[in-house]
Amino acid sequence: MHILTATNICKSFDGTKVLNGISIEVTKGQVLAIIGPSGSGKSTLLRCVTQLETVDSGEITICGERLVKNGADGKAVYSDKAACSKIGLHIGLVFQNFNLFPHLSVMQNITEAPIRVLHRSKAEAEAAATELLKKMDLADKADAYPCQLSGGQQQRVSIARALAMNPDILFFDEPTSALDPELTGEILKVIRELAAEHMTMVVVTHEMKFARDVADYVVFMDNGTIIEQGNPEQLFGNTQNDRTKAFLSRFN
Ligand code: ADP
Ligand code: MG
């Protein structure tokens, strides 16, 4: 079953094409890794799929519901606002810089959306958040504020916050790149555990070993296009593509 299908996505900023006909698909339980140099359009792609940006053209379907399609003139036509909000509920997003609410406690950060958007009772939302905090090894941090936590802890809170909405698909945009190397491992471990539980995920990452181990499928982007895609063995172990080779050689 397809959780996400994005077809021929195009997006320009100020006349410059940043996404030039990108297509990706993710089936249930699959982990898709997106790799590529800085500026290649990875974040823009995630932002388009998660409704933080609009596309100029292309089609996106999430959990069988059409977010956007091409109109007769080839330009993007979005579903109505209510449908878009509903589709948004299928999605979780974890950013590079955690994006926690600084004035809210860890518990409040996690329960805010379930209470406000899903209309969960406070008790129910807090019980679920407590479980998630245990899972993230943060059981004792419920009353702490983001500024009192390490970067790795903040990132685990933001993963718990995303999971609290029970998303069908979770997107990570370079979840470890704002962290010191010694904190990177704890986040990668959490994502590995989610993968083992068959959480459907799209992970933009510069951690090549992690991508090779965890991803079912890898997409290499450069300059707003997909240069190569395939299973990790093929892409990391046996690429014949010169641009992929040049990119990967930076990590050796
Ligand atoms: P990546 O995540 O692969 O590093 P981005 O998607 O962040 O790449 O950026 C791709 C290109 O789009 C870059 O040239 C960037 O400067 C440009 N870009 C991204 N967001 C905006 C924006 N809101 N306005 C103008 N240009 C943008
Ligand atoms: Mg980026």
From TrEMBL:
Predominant localisation class: membrane
One Gene Ontology molecular-function label: ATP binding
Cell location: Cell membrane
UniProt keyword Hydrolase present: no
This protein's record includes keyword Membrane: yes
ABC transporter domain residues: 4-248
Cross-referenced Pfam families: ABC_tran
Keywords: ATP-binding, Cell membrane, Membrane, Nucleotide-binding, Transport
PROSITE patterns: ABC_TRANSPORTER_1 (PS00211), ABC_TRANSPORTER_2 (PS50893)
Bilayer disposition of the protein: Peripheral membrane protein
PANTHER family from the UniProt entry: AMINO ACID IMPORT ATP-BINDING PROTEIN (PTHR43166), L-CYSTINE IMPORT ATP-BINDING PROTEIN TCYN (PTHR43166:SF35)
Annotated protein name in UniProt: Amino acid ABC transporter ATP-binding protein
Species assigned in the record: Caproiciproducens faecalis
